[in-house]
Every structure is written in structure tokens, then in C-alpha cells.
Write a structure and sequence with these properties.
The protein is an alpha/beta fold and 434 residues long. It is built from 21 helices and 7 strands. Helices cover 52% and strands 7% of the residues. The longest helix has 20 residues. 30% of the residues are buried.
Length: 434
């Protein structure tokens, strides 16, 4: 068997902008970047996105379309000495060809402040067009003077459908891909490779390549990739999991009920069962946000902030570091005091709206921006609470037909006990004012 030295992920890099998937927001026909290519008016860019989302590929394609000299530079492997050599070469090119040099700097966030300063005069003069790639938030990792001279473009993790297209291209392509291996891949095996790659096309292609060469061809020289062979090739034990089927709903139900039952052990177990099986972490994050309001609510107002922070941690950092952020949130939510008072209030108020219909806003609560509205009584009789002691005063806020209705009933536990005390004080004040 003839092995190909260049990795599959490198061979399958898109050769045309139209082949790039999942980044239409920056490469679409009406995007600033696409228009700059069409007009030849290129600008310096910081590409910010997760691994395997296409930062290097897009930078190389822009250079190819622009017909400008291209230099690639790694902040991990190179330093200021190599940068000076590139700048000297760029000066010679500009002198004889009147063209700027596109300088691609991979992992630009690894440069310290002084090293980043070295780019400034050459970006400012137009000698180089800087394309920086980073997985870290540029606001924290790139010095402000350099940020002010570049545009930040955010790349998204690739979605499932895009990853499937990329892998199928590689399977079928005989020139650059694995087409000469005659691979047939079962749907569940394809899903498994995609799920464990977490939106990273490079990882997915590497996994596909490893599995393809691991499997022995049959007598017809065909190779069948199923879940067992893929798992064996990658030295991973697959957790069979259909993201759209019953097991998906069973596991999220188990996680939700374990947290509701205040069991951190069961909660963290079901969390990692889902993560290790390839569930979308942002889906889990959304469910944690809902849980924080539905099952904890104002019993612990910090719960929602913890859930939101975990979601943002995954968006900004990704795997593997942010897995622990989700675990932190799950344990916090599981051990937090519980209350479904907000959830009950939501159902109660929605039921009331359905039964009584759209009740008119009382006149004293209406806005009165025009003279006619004032003459019609809009805003008349409204009492401004800040003009009174403790910024409170008796006033009706519900429509007349449903006055006196109670939707939110706080519990006598945790922070809701304090909310209940505040509501009692308000009620006492209202009764005093009668």
C-alpha cells in the first residue's frame, strides 16, 4: 500500500473560496472581505476562531486571489530575527513590484507586547498586510495599537452538516483524498467521527485518515468503516449515542433530574456521558441556563450567572479546557437551593393571558408623548415612586379585570425568603396607605 506523506487535512485544504464551508458571514458575496478581494483593496485582519475552523486556509486563499507575495510565520517557531528577514524581503518586493507582502502569523497571541509592536510601522506604511490567526480573544491578547490597525473577523466552529460534506469530499476525492482506498463508511461511524471532533475539520480529517488506513481491504479491495473499526483505530471506546434519538432525550432528562434532585454525583456523571458521546456542549449550556431559571430561579440569583459564564467559556475557549467550566456549573446548580416559583409564575401568567385575552394598559401606566394622548388621559394619575419614602407607594399595575391576581409566589427558602419579606413590606405599605 502506498502511504501519502502529506496529511489528509493538508491535502484537502480548499483551493477556491467557494469550497470553504461554515464561514459565509465573512466570505459571502456581500461581505466586506469578499468585496475587498474583488476591488483589490485588501486590509489587515485578525482571524479569531476555534482550531480547525479555516483561519489558515482563508488567509492562504486571499493571498492566492490577490496575487500578492505571501509569507507564513509561526509565533511558536519563529521570533523577531525571522520577522526582520521577512520585512527585508518585503521591502525588496515592494521596491521592484510595488506590491505589499501578505504576512500570515499563526498563533499571533503567543507574541508578547514588544514583539507585536514590531509589526506596527510596517502595517501602518502598507509594506505588509497582516493576517493574524488566534484561538484567543483578541481584546485580551492583541495590543490595542495593532487592533486599531486591523479588523477582527470571527470564525465559527463548523456545524455537523459542513463537517459531513468535508469528510465525504475526502472519501470520494481520488487526487487529494482517500478515493483510491474505496472506502464505504456507515452513517453512525461518520456521525461518531464528527461528534468527537467538536467542529474541528482538521481533527475530523485526521481521525478519518487514521481509521481508513487501519481497516484492511476486503477481497474486492474495498474498506468498510463502521463504529467498531473507527473506535479501534482511534483507541476510543464509543458511547453509542443518537443526537436526534431517544438516548439524547434520556440523557438530558437524567442530567436535569439529577440537578433538580440536588445530586452532584449523578449530575456530573450524566454531563460527561453526554460530552464523551459527542453531544454539542452549547446545547448542554443552553439547558443549564434554562435550569438555572426553571428549578432555582431567585432562590439563588447567582445560578443564572454561573450557567451563562459556563456557556460563554465554551464559546470563547472550547475543548478541552471548557469541559471543566460546564462541570463547575453543573455541580453548582445541583447543590444550589431549589425553587420553581418562577416556572409556576410563567405558566400561571401565560394561562391568564390566554383566558382573559389582551387586557388594555391602564391609562395611568401609558406613555403620553403627544398632546392628544395627554388630553385623552394617558399617564394621568401616575405616581412617581422615587418621590416617596423608600421609593415605594401604593399603585395599581395590573389591568382592572385581573387586579389582585397573584402569579409569582416565592418560597420560604434561601434568597426567595428575602424576596418574600420585601413583598410583604410592600403589601403592608399599601394597606397603610388605604
Amino acid at each position: 500500500m502506498q502511504f501519502k506523506i502529506t496529511p489528509l487535512a493538508m491535502r484537502m485544504r480548499p483551493e477556491r473560496i467557494e469550497e470553504v464551508l461554515g464561514q459565509d458571514h465573512i466570505l459571502g458575496p456581500s461581505s466586506p472581505l469578499r468585496r475587498s478581494l474583488e476591488t483589490g483593496n485588501l486590509f489587515s485582519i485578525i482571524f479569531w476562531g476555534p482550531p480547525g475552523s479555516g483561519k489558515t486556509t482563508i488567509a492562504r486563499l486571499i493571498a492566492k486571489y490577490s496575487n500578492c507575495p505571501f509569507e507564513s510565520f509561526s509565533a511558536v517557531l519563529s521570533g523577531v530575527k525571522e520577522l526582520r528577514e521577512i520585512i527585508d524581503s518585503a521591502k525588496r518586493t515592494y521596491r521592484y513590484e510595488l506590491k505589499p507582502t501578505i504576512l500570515f502569523v499563526d498563533e499571533i497571541h503567543r507574541f508578547n507586547k514588544a514583539q507585536q509592536d514590531a509589526f506596527l510601522p510596517h502595517v501602518e506604511s502598507g509594506l505588509i498586510i497582516l493576517f493574524g490567526a488566534t484561538t484567543q480573544n483578541p481584546s485580551f491578547e492583541i495590543i490595542p495599537p495593532l487592533l486599531s490597525r486591523t479588523r477582527v473577523m470571527t470564525l465559527k466552529p463548523l456545524e455537523f452538516k459542513d463537517m459531513a460534506i468535508i469528510l465525504n469530499r475526502a472519501i470520494e476525492d481520488k487526487k487529494r483524498g482517500l478515493g483510491d482506498l474505496h472506502i464505504e463508511i456507515e452513517e453512525v461511524a461518520l456521525q461518531y467521527i464528527i461528534n468527537i471532533s467538536h467542529g474541528d475539520a482538521r481533527t475530523a480529517l485526521n481521525n478519518l485518515e487514521s481509521a481508513s488506513y487501519f481497516v484492511h481491504p476486503d477481497k474486492n479491495d474495498n474498506r468498510l468503516l463502521n463504529i467498531a473499526t473507527v473506535a479501534a483505530a482511534l483507541n476510543k471506546k464509543p458511547l453509542l449515542y443518537d443526537k436526534n434519538g431517544e438516548e439524547h432525550y434520556n440523557l438530558i432528562s437524567a442530567l436535569h433530574k439529577s440537578m433538580r434532585g440536588s445530586d452532584p454525583q449523578g449530575s456530573i456523571y450524566w454531563l460527561y456521558r453526554m460530552l464523551e458521546a459527542g453531544e454539542d456542549p452549547l446545547y448542554i449550556g443552553r439547558r443549564l441556563i434554562r435550569f438555572a431559571s426553571e428549578d432555582i430561579g431567585l432562590a439563588d440569583p447567582n445560578a443564572l450567572e454561573i450557567a451563562l459564564t459556563a456557556y460563554q467559556a465554551w464559546e470563547k475557549v472550547g475543548p478541552p479546557e471548557a469541559k471543566l467550566s460546564l462541570a463547575q456549573a453543573v455541580v453548582y446548580l445541583a447543590t444550589a437551593p431549589k425553587s420553581n416559583a418562577l416556572y409556576v409564575a410563567e405558566k400561571s401568567v401565560k394561562r391568564e393571558i390566554e383566558e382573559s385575552g389582551p387586557q388594555p394598559v391602564p391609562l395611568h401606566l401609558r406613555n403620553a408623548p403627544t398632546k392628544l394622548m395627554k388630553e385623552m388621559g394617558y399617564s394621568k394619575g401616575y405616581i412617581y415612586p422615587h418621590d416617596y419614602p423608600e421609593n415605594r407607594i401604593k399603585q395599581e399595575y395590573l389591568p382592572e379585570k385581573i387586579r389582585g391576581k397573584i402569579f409569582y409566589r416565592p418560597n420560604d427558602r434561601a434568597f426567595e425568603k428575602e424576596i418574600k419579606r420585601r413583598m410583604r413590606e410592600q403589601k403592608k405599605l399599601e394597606n397603610t396607605d388605604k
